[in-house]
Amino acid sequence: MLAVADAVRQGRRSARQLTEEHLAAVAAAEPEVHAFNTVMTDAALAQADDIDRRAAAGEDVGPLAGVPVALKDNICTRGVPTTCSSRILEGWRPQYDATVVVRLRSAGAVVLGKTNLDEFAMGSSTENSAFGPTRNPRDPSRVPGGSSGGSAAAVAAGFAPLALGSDTGGSIRQPAALTGVVGVKPTYGVVSRYGLVAFASSLDQIGPLASSVADAAALLEVVAGHDPADSTSLAEPAPEVTSVLDEGVDGMRVGVVTELMPGGRRARRCRRPGGRGVGPGRGPRPVRLLPHRPRRGVLEPGPLRRRPLRAARRRARYHGDVHGHPLGWLRL
Question: What are the structural domain ranges in the chain?
Fold first, then answer.
């Protein structure tokens, strides 16, 4: 997509034509896949026209000029419904854009729409949405994973080359694996959470989904960086990741949950993507992580055990007893 953005900046491609191509793909297959809760056709075309006009005038229209992007429907968009795939928020239109949305627009990206998710991001299959399940474009009889299954499916189906999801305990990485795309959960604080409807605030992170590592890296560079509106945002400059993509993995440390390794608690080797073992002095170095204690026979890291408590506190804002909803007496 970087080459496409470069072509739009130079006037060799039209942002409107690129947007129309992806909207046509959505119209053709969306009834089967159901990746989106909202498709922003008119707004996307207007944004694409503005990018073409500015590019023709010689303005710098940004590193993602004309590139369509899909947003998970728990990321606030000014004037556009943000439902979290719940009837509770159906029709709610935020009065502001999330920081990541502001940065996407500044970078020239075209927002195509808001993608489906498990309700309030609590799920791992994108079946638990008030607006119906999302299906895996690779095989519609299977789930796309979740909770960012709509964003992953949008990329896998070719609806959008880039998408943003949110990840609390795997909600970007797992659907990326199930749909065959690239998904990254950035280090906590690298990407602003301002405008993300919280699940568990001390674990949530917005991250990229794309069809290639290079595209995911480019998207991460655009949305990353310190944000004064987010008190947990890291003060350090945004990481430069595209410049190091060709440096390989030699010398990197790879955390290994040894309890999940076949053959017991000792991990002796890492493996390259092709499956070939990596010995001492070559490739990444495996490092044993802190023990993960089984709970009822299932390995469950401590932070994930705390997710339900934090989620309950966040959902309390929708509870009539807490915030005085007119129907609070019903004990919803």
Answer: 2-246, 248-298, 301-332
- 147 in catalytic set: yes
Q: Tell me the CATH number for domain 2-246.
A: 3.90.1300.10
Q: Give the residue ranges of the chain where pLDDT is below 70.
A: 259-332
What is the per-residue pLDDT for 275? 46
* Residue 201 bears catalytic tag: no
- Catalytic residue of the set 124, 147, 148, 211: 147
CA proximity to 63, closest of 112, 4, 111: 4
Contacts of 157 (CB under 8 A, 6+ apart): 25, 29, 33, 35, 137
pLDDT at 267: 44
**Among the options 72, 85, 86, 192, which is catalytic?**
72
> Cα 278 to the chain's mean position, in Å?
31
pTM, full prediction = 0.85
- Residues 184, 172: contact at Cβ < 8 Å? yes
The whole-number pLDDT of residue 48 equals 98
Which residue among the candidates 124, 129, 151, 171 is catalytic per the annotation? 171
Alpha-carbon distance of 256 to 46, in angstroms, equals: 47
Confidence at residue 238, expressed as pLDDT on a 0 to 100 scale: 85
pLDDT the model gives residue 202: 87
HEC string of 246-261 equals HHCCCCCEEEECHHHC
User: Is 114 among the residues known to form the active site?
Assistant: no
